Amino acid sequence: MSIYLEKEIAEYKTINQKSSDLHNSAKQFMPGGDSRNSIYWDPFPIYLSDGQGSIITDVDGNKRVDFINNMTTLILGHRPKAVEESLMNQIKKGFSFPTPSPPVVRWAELMCERVPSIEKIRFVNSGTEATLNAIRAARAYTGKQKLAKFEGAYHGNHDAIQISVTPPLDLAGPASSPNSVRAFKGISNKAENDIVIMPFNDIEASSKIIEKNAGDLAAVIVEPVNGQCGMIPAKKAFLEGLRSLTKKHKIILIFDEVISFRVAYGGAQEYYKIKPDLTSFGKIIGGGMPVGAFGGREDIMSLWNPSGSGPTVQHAGTFNGNPMTAVAGIATLESLTEDIYENLNKKGEYLRKTLSILFKEIEAPMTISGIASLFALQFTTEEVFDYRTYAKNNNTLMKTMFIGLLNEGYLLSNRCAGNISASHSYEEIDGFIEAIKNVLHRSGYG
Ligand SMILES: Cc1ncc(COP(=O)(O)O)c(C=O)c1O
Fold first, then answer.
1. Which of 272, 305, 335 is where one domain is finished?
2. pLDDT in tens, the chain (446 residues)
3. Which residues approach ligand 1 with their CB closer than 6 A?
């Protein structure tokens, strides 16, 4: 641990005493004190008591500007009026029904209207279930077993896809034909064998892998913006190459838009002008309630149709399409006009541009990646375009920045990724840039 990180942690402990106490209690009942490893950090996470607009307040009374918005979910900020009102109205009618209710029909209609590739859609309760079902659909439709994914991509917490998410470099194999590496013990060997791993943003190497495995491949799954490696946008030619190869070999192309649906009114597929066969969704489409969805080509989605002779693929879920999530989703989607996207994306561009200039000016060993309202601080001066280049990040400086920003009053993800919500003002963005400058200054830069 560097002296700079030690100092930031000492300050952090001083101002977050109640969070520390709560964490000690939490650890007695939940392993590590929570039910979600991805938001844990040492020495303990802050425990939040409320959020309003762009501001979150923790149990110690510290107010911070939230630049992670529940991992990109809260695109309108915390408790936007339209969403809160729709939830309050629904509470009076009932929050969980044993048959469909009107809101889910409107919600599905909104998604189909917004995204031209979505001819039919089904709702679930997490992005994990969304990718699980999209992959299952591809296997059922093609009769093939294998799946291709990209190194360094996270698509949820199920066996088929928890492979080569953050593989240790000594196990990862050659950059142009990476090994498939289980993310952790407990993932089935079959999942590890049923997958091929490709390098993100490298169409030449990926083409060779697809061509070689085409006869066995049910699907290629790709995030148009790789969230795990710091919101790295795919190159357009790379996605176009994947589209034409998958078409040629009758492989289902799945876009995982759980995060990238933030990029444009119709998601990243609108921005890139590419039509996948299936898409998985999550996060913003549920307005802050638990959510996931998958949809796409009618001929594939009809596998789920239970009427007549019954479905080819079974699909149950006690809370699928529940009315609370549906009304929050409707209120969010109806608020998300083209203008809102334009504003969000302008703020994102402003942040990235200003920070790039700053890093050069003070010779900080950093860059910033991202697209639209998504961004991530990268602690390397080399361009980050895939997992191997992302792995060059200086993790100590990253952690110092993360804790330092918490001390300054700003929350990012613990890997220093962030996003802008409609609640953020330019003043808050300027304050955030100043805070980054302060942490760098305390760490010996500028
Ligand atoms: C691209 C992507 N796909 C799938 C998921 C899984 O979503 P959930 O956490 O709702 O299961 C995530 C979660 O962060 C994600 O970023």
1. 335
2. 899 999 999 999 999 999 999 999 999 999 999 999 999 999 999 999 999 999 999 999 999 999 999 999 999 999 999 999 999 999 999 999 999 999 999 999 999 999 999 999 999 999 999 999 999 999 999 999 999 999 999 999 999 999 999 999 999 999 999 999 999 999 999 999 999 999 999 999 999 999 999 999 999 999 999 999 999 999 999 999 999 999 999 999 999 999 999 999 999 999 999 999 999 999 999 999 999 999 999 999 999 999 988 778 889 999 999 999 999 999 999 999 999 999 999 999 999 999 999 999 999 999 999 999 999 999 999 999 999 999 999 999 999 999 999 999 999 999 999 999 999 999 999 999 999 999 999 999 98
3. 71, 126-128, 131, 154-156, 223, 227, 256, 258-259, 282, 292
Q: Write the DSSP string, 236-255.
A: HHHHHHHHHHHHHTT-EEEE
Residue 350 domain boundaries:
3-75+338-442
Residue ending a domain, among 335, 356, 380, is: 335
Does 99 lie in the same domain as 27? no
Distance CA 138, CA 254 (A): 9
Same domain as 165, residue 27: no
Active site residues: 154, 256, 283
Ligand 1 pocket mutation pick from 72, 150, 279, 283 by most atoms within 8 angstroms of CB = 283
Q: In what order do the strands lie in the sheet with 278-282?
A: 120-124, 292-296, 278-282, 252-256, 217-222, 146-150, 195-198
Q: Contact 150/220 with Cβ under 8 angstroms?
A: no
Enter the pTM of the model: 0.98
- Please state the domain count of the chain: 2
